[in-house]
Write a structure and sequence with these properties.
With 81 residues, the protein is an alpha+beta fold. The protein has 2 helices and 6 strands. The chain has one domain. The strands form 2 sheets. Strands 1-5-6 form a 3-stranded antiparallel sheet. It is globular.
Length: 81
């Protein structure tokens, strides 16, 4: 079995705080997401729809896709560029 390391890639991300709907939707260019009081923030990805919880980081991937990431995973994976 071979070992692999992630390539160093700089990504854009924003923290969902539960109140910054406009800021997050602007970050996502008002696409691939929806928000309402019942479901909260839902991000539509190629793998399906994912609910973002307060505190999650919303990441723009290398292909322009968006997805939520738990804060602990984000902190273990990324650092400020």
């Amino acid at each position: 079995m071979a070992k692999f390391r992630e390539k160093p890639v700089v990504i854009d991300a924003i923290r969902w705080d539960g109140t910054n709907v406009t800021e997050v939707m602007d970050f996502m260019n008002w696409r691939n997401a929806s928000h309402d009081d019942r479901q909260g923030l839902v991000i539509h990805t190629l793998e399906g729809s994912h609910s973002a919880m307060v505190g999650d980081m919303i990441i723009k991937g290398v292909a322009g896709e968006f997805y939520p990431c738990k804060p602990d995973i984000f902190a273990a994976t990324y650092e400020v560029a």
